[in-house]
Amino acid sequence: MAVRTILDKRAGIDAPTLRKDTWWVPPVITFVVLGTFVVYSTWAAFQGSNYFHAPYLSPLYSPCLASRCIDHVTPTVLGRWWAISPAIAILPFPLLFRATCYYYRKSYYRAFFFSPPACAVKEPRKRYLGESHGVFLVQNIHRYAWWLVLPFCVFLTWDAVRAFFFPNGFGMGLGTLILCVNALLLNAYTFSCHSARHILSGHVDRFSRARFRSKLWNKLTWLNERHMPIAWASLLVVGFSDLYVRLVASGTIHDPRFF
Question: What is the band of 238 on the pLDDT scale with cuts at 50, 70, 90?
């Protein structure tokens, strides 16, 4: 006869974890990479200079809000009262989308908040409040933030097209290639989002009665399954694109032309 033991509470484990593998490596890498990007992008956003070198425009400053897209020109879209870098008016929208992204939330919760540091690893807090209190309430608007970044897909795609048109005519430089890759990855990141799949191909009870949405769901699912590497690649290329344009605009490096 089977014997069933009923306890008042779950068994406790004093050790932080019983894992023997190097579980701490991914959170450390995330902390270093994501922390470096945050520091660099914040510094670059406040510079307000060296963000344009015809025909290249840094993605951190797109769309260009200046009367002419050159350094130290008062943004006409915002008015003469705006005396700081135009990137400060642009970045909150893509920042809101990335900060509330389901994948990025998992990453920085683990790396910065230890909530938890990894699977089967004890976190320092005894209570879990989720995203129902304080500043974390903003996490619930991710699906709405998706709509806010759609125009940036258009802006950066247009910037990639314009990167072929130099002051002396049509051509292609290394900066052109970098901005094209940046636009491609940004679009892939935006449309591989979980919210994008739901918004564009969800809202149905039976896919058998919505064949087009069913096919679209399958296509977006293929992209969604690759959301993690796309998220990292797009983040790194955004930072690298700004750095490249900044170095070319400041005269630190020369932009090689392919034709």
Answer: very high
What are the φ and ψ backbone dihedral angles of 166, each rounded to 5 degrees? -85, 165
| CA–CA distance, 109 with 103 (Å, rounded to integer) | 10
Give the pTM. Answer: 0.86
CA-to-CA separations, 91 to 56, 99, 153, 255, in angstroms, rounded: 18, 12, 13, 26
| Closest by Cα among 2, 101, 104, 92 to 45 | 92
- Residue 165 φ/ψ, nearest 5 degrees: -110, 95
CA–CA separation, 50 and 32 (whole Å): 26
| Predicted local distance difference test score (pLDDT) of residue 68 | 64
CB 46 within 8 A of CB 85: yes
Q: Which helix (H) or strand (E) holds 53?
A: strand 52-53
Q: Residue 195 and residue 173: Cα distance in Å, rounded?
A: 35
Residues in CB range of 256: below 8 A, 6 or more apart? 173, 174
Whole-number pLDDT of residue 7: 53
Parallel/antiparallel/unpaired status of strands 165-166 and 169-170: antiparallel
Q: Extract long-range pairs of 119-128: CB within 8 Å, 24+ residues apart.
A: 119/23, 120/17, 120/18, 120/19, 120/23, 121/16, 121/17, 121/19, 121/23, 122/13, 122/15, 122/16, 122/17
178 pLDDT above the threshold of 80: yes
Residue 128 has pLDDT above 60, yes or no: yes
CA distance 37 to 109: 16
